[in-house]
Design brief:
Length: 726
């Protein structure tokens, strides 16, 4: 027996034979077109080799660097530059051969050999239409490549010279600025640095320190003399100077004598004369005048010497009475005080000079560092200037030795490439093989995109995954009527045994359920039309009736017309007009005996009805099914497909279990999986199992075919059936 995969693949080939055939014929047609193509013309390939080039004698460093850089830039983009291809295209046009730059680029192949940034060998090939064209084009391209490398090297050399010329003025200006800064620094700080270097600065510092020590000794001697004279005179140097100046002035001496004489007269006359006496008044006035004159003269004398004025006349008279000896001591004290002031001022000047010299000496290292920095700056700028000048001279000399970085090592040679013609028979054979493979692949892919279960194994796998028992695998049925309806009329029908086993499986499934008894009312459903639901219900009813059980088949699909005429039962028009009266038995008995099968009864459908759900939910239908349960041993309800409506579920309360009918080529996998999940979740209506129709069919019929895969035998005397619907 063929495996499930091979069976499904064969079914897919049969189902998608036209797309597969179209694919096969398309590929074979393409291969025929290819086989009939004339052989391609021969191709001409010119090939040559370029290698590195260097001047015979290199004397300049710049020339060597330019050559090395020129070798480093060699690449495919450089060798096939737009300017090169344009020049070659113009030259070809001048020689009477038209070829645009893009065609030159597409037909040229460049292969570089060597290390990174150092190409040692360049192999260039060109594909042309003839031998002369190929050799000419590649020769022109070789000349252009060599010339482009030479021009590039010369342009690089000129760029170096231009860059040096642009850099030189700025470098020269920096050198002149550095020299001027060093020169200005030497003018300002050079003498100090030179003095420090020859030792004169240290001599000045030590001489100043020695002079300060001598002045300190002299000041100490003067201080002792001044202190001795102050003790003798009881005057400070300033007071001594004032007393000496007043005592030496003759006018002050004369005024002092006149004041003394006037005071003497006043004292002599005071006992005898009153103060208001004219003589006393005159003497008092003379005394006041002398005192005023004395004060003014003292002010002149003292002010003339730059000293502060005396506070009163009595102090003037007291400080102007020095005798010659004391006046000599006072003059000596004033002289010593002046000498000490001079030495103190000299000492201060020496101290300031010493500080300046010391500061100058301490800043000497910074000055030397600053001068060294300026000198180093001048040296660096001078070195850079000299280097640029040398580079300019070297670049000017390199112009004579600059050559191309490439040279032709192997001139272009033309090779004729003629492809061996392919045999048309081989092409057709390969095309036929590819067509077969592609046709099979198309059928397989289309089958993968189709969600319909194509084999009984596919349906069994889904049922097994959902733990739904398979009650029967019904093969293709053999029909006994000329119309092809697979109704098992004859008692000796070979397929009747299958439905006998199905009936036994249903009893066993009922005993294993929670009810524990064989079901009396069964709901026969399917996911869609064409799966053989009605055929299965009728044949199962026939099998039960043949076994001696009173069996009723109820057509509950009120959306379709009745199929009871298969078994010779017809229904009047009044039943379709008043379906509720029909099921209530007000018009006639809704149950009819099948004329050709004993113990088999039918309840034909009064359909199609506009509102089937309302009828199925009515009390008349409920009472009808309750009466049927009491009158018959087995009641089979042929319900509508579940994918079209939920009418079948409305009858679940009146049934003992549900049987799901499937059929390869009709049942959709996704719909079946969703339907099984929904039915298994409904605990009020147990799912007893499933029937797989056409399980042994090698070629399932299309949805337009009747039954479960019927095969028609020779016609026998059976009732004529005019229509059927699944």
């Amino acid at each position: 027996m063929a495996s499930a995969f091979v069976k499904r693949y064969l079914l897919a080939l049969d189902r998608y034979k036209w797309p597969s055939l179209g694919t096969f014929l398309g590929i074979v047609g393409i291969s025929a077109v290819v086989a009939l193509q004339p052989p391609p013309p021969p191709q001409y390939r010119a090939e040559g080799v370029l290698v590195q080039n260097a001047p015979l004698l290199a004397l300049t460093t710049t020339g060597t660097e330019v050559q090395q850089r020129g070798q480093g830039i060699i690449s495919e983009n450089f060798l096939l530059a737009d300017v090169l291809l344009q020049q070659v295209s113009l030259e070809l046009e001048r020689r009477g051969m038209s070829m645009n730059p893009e065609t030159l680029r597409n037909r040229t192949t460049v292969q570089l050999e060597g290390e990174e940034n150092l190409v040692q060998r360049v192999t260039v090939s060109f594909r042309g239409d003839n031998e002369e064209q190929s050799g000419m084009v590649l020769g022109l391209m070789f000349e252009a490549m060599v010339e482009l490398s030479r021009v590039t090297n010369r342009a690089r050399l000129r760029a170096i010279g231009t860059a040096l010329d642009e850099r030189l003025p700025a470098v020269e200006a920096d050198l002149r600025a550095a020299e001027q800064a060093l020169e200005a620094y030497d003018r300002t700080e050079g003498p100090a640095i030179q003095a420090a270097l020859d030792g004169s600065l240290l001599g000045s510092i030590s001489g100043g320190q020695q002079q300060q020590r001598q002045n300190q000794i002299a000041l100490a001697g003067l201080d002792s003399q001044i202190q001795s004279l102050q003790q003798q005179l009881g005057l400070s140097p300033g007071q001594a100077f004032t007393a000496s100046a007043l005592s030496a002035d003759p006018i002050i001496a004369q005024l002092r004598s006149q004041i003394l004489e006037t005071e003497t007269q006043i004292r002599l006359l005071a006992p005898s004369l009153r103060p208001s006496h004219p003589t006393m008044q005159s003497l008092q006035q003379n005394l006041a005048a002398y005192n005023t004159l004395l004060a003014e003269r003292a002010q002149e004398v003292i002010g003339g010497q730059g000293l502060a004025a005396l506070p009163s006349v009595s102090e003037v008279r007291q400080n102007s009475t020095l005798d010659p000896a004391r006046a000599a001591l006072a003059n000596q004290l004033v002289s010593l005080s002046a000498e000490r002031a001079a030495l103190a001022s000299q000492q201060q000047v020496l101290s300031q000079a010493d500080g300046q010299l010391r500061q100058q000496y301490s800043s000497l290292p910074n000055k030397q560092l600053e001068r060294n920095r300026l000198a180093q700056r001048v040296a660096l700028n001078q070195a850079l200037y000299d280097q640029i000048q040398a580079k300019r001279i070297d670049a000017a000399a390199a112009e004579a030795e600059t050559v191309s970085s490439l040279t032709i090592a192997e001139p272009p040679t033309v090779i004729v490439q003629a492809d061996e013609p392919t045999s048309p028979i081989s092409v057709m054979a390969v095309g036929g093989l590819l067509g077969l493979v592609a046709a099979g692949a198309v059928a397989f892919l289309l089958d993968l995109l189709d969600s319909t279960a194509r084999t009984a194994e596919d349906i069994q796998g889904i049922l097994t995954d959902q733990d739904v028992p398979v009650l029967a695998l019904v093969p293709t049925l053999v029909t006994a009527s000329a119309q092809g309806w697979p109704m098992l009329y004859q008692p000796q029908a070979p397929d009747l045994e299958i439905y006998e086993r199905l009936r036994s499986s249903l009893r066993r499934a009922g005993t294993l359920s929670e009810a524990g008894v064989a079901p009396r009312v069964l709901l026969i459903v399917s996911s869609r039309g064409g799966e053989g639901k009605t055929t299965s219900a009728f044949n199962l009813g026939i099998a039960a009736a043949r076994a001696g059980r009173r069996t009723l088949v109820v057509e509950a699909d009120l959306r379709q017309a009745s199929c009871s005429h298969w078994l010779g039962v017809s229904l009047g028009r009044e039943a379709s007009a008043e379906p509720l009266h029909h099921y209530a038995g007000r018009q006639q008995d809704p149950i009819h005996l099948a004329p050709w099968v004993e113990n088999l009864y039918l309840a034909p459908s009064p359909g199609p009805q506009p509102h089937p759900a309302a009828i199925l939910e009515s009390s008349e239908i409920g009472q009808f099914l309750a009466d049927a349960r009491a009158r018959f041993d087995l009641v089979l309800i042929d319900a509508p497909p579940l994918s079209y409506s939920n009418d079948a579920l409305l009858l679940g309360a009146s049934s003992d279990g549900l049987v799901l009918v499937t059929r390869p080529g009709y049942t959709d996998k996704a719909v079946l999986e969703a339907l099984l999940e929904q039915l298994l979740e409904n605990e009020d209506l147990p799912l007893l199992g499933a029937i797989v129709n056409a399980a042994g069919a090698a070629n399932p019929v299309s949805p337009a075919d009747p039954g479960v895969g019927a095969t028609t035998l020779a016609p026998e005397a059976q009732p004529m059936v005019r229509s059927i619907d699944f």
